[in-house]
Amino acid sequence: MEKLVINGGKSLRGSVEINGAKNAAVAILPAAIIANTGKCVIDNIPDIEDVHCLERILKSLGCTVNKLDNNTLEIDSTDVNNFDACTEDVRRMRASYYFIGSLLARFKQARVELPGGCPIGVRPIDQHIKGFEALGAEVVIEHGAVKVKADRLVGTNIFFDVVSVGATINVMIAATLAEGVTTLENVAKEPHVVDVANFLNTMGADIKGAGTDVIRIRGVKELSGCSYSVIPDQIEAGTFMISAAATRGDITIKNVIPKHLESITAKLIEMGVVVEEGDDSVRVTVDGELKGVNIKTTPYPGFPTDIQQPMSSLLSTVPGRSMINESIYENRHKHTDELKKMGANIKVEGRVALIDGVEKLTGAVVVATDLRAGAAMVVAGLMAEGETEITNIEHIDRGYPHIEEKFRSLGADIHRVSCED
User: Fold this and answer.
1) pTM
2) CA-derived radius of gyration, the chain
3) 118 is catalytic
4) Last-in-domain residue among 201, 229, 257
């Protein structure tokens, strides 16, 4: 096992390149299975553990996967004839459920073990199932796996009871080869939903409306391989923006789409942070006193739930009281117990965290309880006086490629070291 050791208190300065979006890549890679001719060459893929896990699942299903470089994969799914995705890799990652929609589209049946992922609260797949059944599939959950089968998939109107990124993408994938037109209403509008739709369209799908409340999919006969580049990671970019503010530094974050960062930018500016936007970059600096803010996480274009944990680390040393209302996941404040070990003054009441800013945080031994909580611990360690040790960093590696190298390039004293189990 490994841990991150940070000697904090250094003002971060310089520039950093953002990788491709994790949340887009983990849906695009399973969707590549639908192509029954040609190869998919996908670049700007983040070099993270979740992607490595998906590579292994694709190979287990019969895909030929070649790594052209650290951020480019070539996937040939021509000879795939296996619709049974039941491996340890499937069980350990949440996004493996995208294989249900992909295999259902291509083979009209699939068996996929129920996925795991970060322990941040209940994340049911009932809306996925609703969508598959509306398209004409029979869905059964037995022996820990989801089994779907359809004689044919037929387009229909589907209204999601709640806005769900996973269900929107999964049902959209399944509908690409359905007969007729499928209309999805009350859908998620996140940038990675749009990116998956663009990828499917590049393969030959006919999808319109991604990024709005209504997506329409006109079924086609087949999809074929293509070349595609994944969008930049909104959450990685936001984490570095927060780190610049937290260390009172000056960081230029490159390879971003500033439009995707608007809700984060708005809150940082409200706090007193200076954010300058370029065409594909943002520069974040602090030249005065910061003040507390109130945040409520909501679906895009609102404030992202994946950023609230790193933001809570920043707010823990901002004068005054701040409040974070987590409206997406009910169990996403567990990291606050770790921040308290470092001297933070945080009180959690249900889904609301009340944060009274303290003068400073101090280094401690803390745990990354999930992916974004791990990022929060890194931000806290960078701010803190003294040494911070972060364990369970396998969570961090699922979503942040080479995180210690990137922060070292900005002047941070951060190292990955081995530790006893």
Assistant:
1) 0.95
2) 21
3) yes
4) 229
